[in-house]
Amino acid sequence: PVICAVNGMCCGGGLHFVADSDIVIASNNATFFDTHVKVGLVAGLEPVSLSRKIPLESVLRMSLIGGGEKLSAGEAKNIGLISEIVDDNQLMQRAIELANQIKIHSPSALAKTKKAIWESKETGLSAALNNAWDLISEQQTHPDFTEGTTAFIEKRSPKWKPYNPDE
Fold first, then answer.
1. Residue 138: enclosing H or E segment and its boundaries?
2. Contacts of 104 (CB under 8 A, 6+ apart)
């Protein structure tokens, strides 16, 4: 999982981090804008990825206005570009807290969860649900499936296997 913590200006190519991350948080002084067209460049890669996360009109507005408007952290949260706003002096601490909450889970379950979600953006609903069922079935044969259940019953922390993309 990738957590992006934005503090200050996030523009142009910096929007890749926001577009490609799983969780995005920002400080209350963060701003978001795209200046590609302002300098004669095509705003292509970042907006295409962002259009899978936020409303199309928001992506078009940011891309076509070319930095003439900047989204505040509050506006970014309202359109779903970020999930949380924190004080700038708390930003990295909060990102680490989120990472610590994530890292206690099965690496293979996390990877397959991300895969199911991100791959669903590439297909229709039926294909996405079939893919998710395949990943669920695949995980049920992974040692972490048994370990998680056993650890829960025994009221102990699980001992996960390191992530191996071939499993």
1. helix 125-139
2. 157
DSSP 30-84: -EEE--TGGGT----HHHHHHTTTS-HHHHHHHHHHTTSS-EEHHHHHHTTS-SE
User: Which conformational region is residue 155 in: left (phi greater than 0), alpha (psi within -120 to 50 degrees), or beta?
Assistant: left
pLDDT in tens, 50-69: 999 999 999 999 999 999 99
Neighbours of 165 (CB within 10 A): 7
pTM metric for this prediction: 0.89
- Cβ distance 94 to 86 under 8 Å? yes
Predicted confidence (pLDDT) at residue 163 exceeds the cutoff of 90? no
- Segment 129-155, tens digit of pLDDT: 999 999 999 999 999 999 999 999 999
In angstroms, the CA 53 to CA 43 distance is 16
Both tokens assigned to 63? 């891309």
Residue 161 contacts residue 143 (beta carbons within 8 Å): yes
Q: Cα 37 from chain centroid? A: 26
